[in-house]
Amino acid sequence: MKRELLRGDVIYVKLDDHPYSSVQSGMRPCLVISSYPSSKVANVCPFTAKLDKKNIPVHVKVEPQDVNGYLEKPSLLLVEQITTIDRKKIISKTGHIPEDSEVMSLVNKALIRQLMISDEKM
What we know:
globular
């Protein structure tokens, strides 16, 4: 059975291993940023609990109270590490960040910055 995923869902995923690199790997929470219902894949951004990372403008701090559901501890969402996952790698869905929240507004701004999207020519 295909898991229903919505943009803003917080899920635990088994990411591929990337030893000796800065790319997030292993089992960790991620935020769903895009998921087409009939697709077998989803686009996610991983979280890290290491809050002492360099101040990068596409990092978004997320507190447990920002999530309707469960996020273990204050975390940084690493928007620059957008990745595509197979839905089979999802371990569990633990919560949701509402689209109309301040956090999702910051995520949207970080995505626009990371992807270098400009609405000037739209």
